[in-house]
Amino acid sequence: MNEFFQTLNSNTTLLFGFALILGLLVGSFLNVVIHRVPKMLEQDWTHQCQILLEQEQEQEQEKLTLSTPNSSCPNCGHAIRPWENIPIVSYLFLRGRCSSCKQGISIRYPLIEAVSGALSLAIVYSFGASYASLSLLGLTWVLIALTMIDADTQLLPDNMTIPLVWAGLIVNYFGLLTSLESALWGAVFGYLSLWSVYQLFKLLTGKEGMGYGDFKLLAALGAWMGWQMLPIIILLSSLVGAIIGIGMVLIRGKDKNIPIPFGPYLAIAGWITLVWGHEITQIWLG
What we know:
The chain has helices at 2-10, 12-52, 89-93, 108-127, 131-153, 158-173, 180-205, 212-225, 230-252, 263-285. By secondary structure, it is mainly alpha-helical. The chain starts with a helix and ends with a helix.
């Protein structure tokens, strides 16, 4: 593997091209994750509730997974063929429409692919070809999926956030980003900081200001980057949230009383800190 990394690092064109293509391909898969994971959880919860309440189960539905059934047009059921699933290229070739029924395809699909490709390229540009870069690509892709799932459903699934905490601790067991001690306390303080804010807000207002998924996501970011980066992540997430929230109110006239998910702001702030955290710290302290 080290020889492979050396080969990529010695040829930046190959390195950046590989990172971009890999990011685009993973972005196409992330579209499936973002769409199906909430539905898979809902299907599982419904099944568990029926068992708990001893209700007769409705006609058995096909179990939804990330691989089955095959992707199809939600309007006409046309099975998406491999050449219709090439990141960005297929969308442009099909002119944003289903090849069968000509129903419009949401622009968010190629946008997510493009974002995945661009962020993957930025990670490799910043960290080169290395084990750290490889692990941070995985973190980046999960953050993209969590951002979109939370934006759609106000849900940060435990089956994604909790493994992310453990992954950060394992990565830093080998000292790839920070020390294991810093990562451990980053996970602890990350969780407890938002949990404390939640409890205080609930005590003062009687309302829940955020979900437990936000605690786990910040714990995961602390496990990956260490406790030292938590203040920057929290400050940046507040700044990002203020900018996006005000923009949504001004542009779309969003009702100020409608809850806005905090997970996307944490994810965006965490990724910015991941790439430029040390520079931001130096500017802050300087």
